[in-house]
Specification:
alpha+beta; two-stranded antiparallel sheet; 1 helix; 6 strands; about 25% strand; flat
Amino acid sequence: MIQPRFQGAIVTISKKLVVDMSDIHVVRITCHQCPTSLSLAIDDKKNDPPEKCPNCGAPWYAYGSTEMSQINTLLAALKEFRSRHGKRERQISLEITQQTEPANSFPD
């Protein structure tokens, strides 16, 4: 009796990137009007983002908006955490899931 040949299978490959909080040095924001992005260094003494895109002049977010407040809070929290990170026994990391792609595990 002849066994049917396995015709191939689709598997999903998932990659995860684990980033230690001490490895985060920059937060990048991108303009919604043009492709300009701005990198904000966490350790910079003045890390508040400008109100407008330096390229096209579009506002990043409305002045005083929740989003702008959240960006400033994120930068301040990351800076504070990084300054205290070496004093803690526990390590805290971010897990980032990269885009997955189906892959053939067996040739047809």
